[in-house]
Amino acid sequence: MNVLVVNGPNLRRLGTREPEKYGSTTHEELTVLVTQWGADLGLDVEVRQSDDEADLVHWMHESVDAGTHVVINPAAFTHYSYALRDAAALVTAEGLNLIEVHLTNPHAREAFRHTSVISGIATGTIAGLGIDSYRLALEAVARRVG
């Protein structure tokens, strides 16, 4: 079973960007962990990151075409990218899982972060548990497709 893990803007800076909020794990380390967690669950995981909204939209389209489940941390696009929301909705409309993840709890942060345009079409949302949010999302996908 294939799973695409998509990370949005600024996540390439994990480990150095506000480590008090986002932790000290780098994106490269996260990629290794996520790939191993997936393998342990019998999932073939690919991790991608982009600061470009168009890349994320394109990757949602690829996931639909390939029948690939998605774990997505849309980062700042969470709050305003209707293009990404519409592309992500195609994933769930095909019966594929799309799990939204966040390292921090958006509801415990600034008011503008309280709204997600992705949550309403996601299979589920996991937030506030640091990098464990990704592990839990992969476990959820594995159980749902079990």
Automatic annotation (TrEMBL):
Residue(s) at site: Transition state stabilizer = 17
Question: Which residues are substrate-binding?
Answer: 73, 79, 86, 103-104, 113
Q: What class of enzyme is it?
A: lyase
| Keywords, alphabetical | Amino-acid biosynthesis, Aromatic amino acid biosynthesis, Lyase
Pathway note = Metabolic intermediate biosynthesis; chorismate biosynthesis; chorismate from D-erythrose 4-phosphate and phosphoenolpyruvate: step 3/7
EC numbers listed for it are 4.2.1.10
* Active-site residues, as the UniProt record annotates them: 22 (proton acceptor), 102 (proton donor)
Cross-referenced InterPro entries, in alphabetical order?
Answer: DHquinase_II, DHquinase_II_CS, DHquinase_II_sf
Q: Which reactions is this enzyme annotated as catalysing?
A: 3-dehydroquinate = 3-dehydroshikimate + H2O
Q: How does it assemble?
A: Homododecamer.
Q: Which family does it belong to?
A: Belongs to the type-II 3-dehydroquinase family.
Summarize the protein's role. Catalyzes a trans-dehydration via an enolate intermediate.
Supply the name of the protein: 3-dehydroquinate dehydratase
**Organism name:** Demequina sediminis
